Amino acid sequence: MVSDRRSIERLAWLKWIDRISTATAALAGIATLGMMINVIIDVIGRYAFKQPLPGTLDLVTFAWMPSLVSLGLGFALLRGEMVRVSLLTAPTSPRTQRIIEILGMTLMLFTVGFLLWFGVEKAIDSTDLEESAVGTPWLPVWVFRWAVMVGLAVLLLQSAAQLLRAATVKVFVPDDADELEAEAFDFNELDDVKVGTR
């Protein structure tokens, strides 16, 4: 019991990473709301007044979509909402699932780290050029390139947190364990249905 308490205290700082992921997800939610309002006004203007909202396509393409997707990545990983091939991992032992999780998070760290390193260079170049959308010159694209970098940085932190949790927690339970239980299907029921329809 004491060792469990010490391990929890040792990993308590990981909750700050979880809070950062939650905060950026809230920003992604605001971006989603902004995009919805933007598109609704554009559609109403287009069909009711024959006057669409200028710059809607560029706003959705360069501002709203990159922000709402990238800023929610860390939270999706925290909640276990990333795509997983549980069909292959579910039948394995908890030890094997832990190893798969550790390998997966390590691979994610390297992949996201590379994307972040490459993306920061592009964002710096975009900032130096004061890049804006071609069709909408008042829209600064460089700002939203940095929003994507923030999302990737949070995903990198959350990947590190998940890796530490998978490596140090005493009893490993995969993120999709509850989904696997909900999706469990008794094939005997299928036979009963076939017999009943004859």
Question: What this model shows, in words?
Answer:
- The structure is a single chain.
- This protein has one domain.
- The protein is 76% helix and 0% strand.
- The protein is built from 9 helices and no strands.
- Helix 2 runs antiparallel to helix 3, helix 3 runs parallel beside helix 7 and helix 6 runs antiparallel to helix 7.
- The N terminus is likely disordered.
> What's the mean pLDDT score?
84
Structural class: mainly alpha
* Low-confidence blocks of residues: 1-6, 178-185
Helix content: over 70%
Question: How many helical elements?
Answer: 9
The main β sheet shows up as: none
Count the beta strands: 0
How many whole angstroms does the radius of gyration measure?
23 Å
Described by the principal axes of the CA atoms, the overall outline is: elongated
End-to-end gap? 58 Å
Topology pattern, helix = H, strand = E: HHHHHHHHH
**What is the domain tally?**
1
Strand content: under 5%
Summary, kept brief:
By secondary structure, this protein is mainly alpha-helical. It is 76% helix and 0% strand. The chain has one domain.
Notable features of this structure?
198 residues; mainly alpha; 76% helix; 0% strand
